[in-house]
Design a protein that fits this description.
40 residues, mainly alpha, 65% helix
Length: 40
């Protein structure tokens, strides 16, 4: 399973920032978290 995930991520993008965003977005969706954007 781990190899399949890594293979998918490599096919999605080789840019770390894009992969990080995908992982974070998935985590937020799976855990039904709500995002509050802070403004200064």
């Amino acid at each position: 399973m781990k190899q399949q995930v890594l293979k998918f991520l490599k096919s999605y993008s080789t840019l770390p920032l894009e992969v990080d965003r995908l992982i974070v977005s998935t985590f937020i969706k799976v855990n039904n978290l709500r995002i509050n954007n802070n403004t200064f």
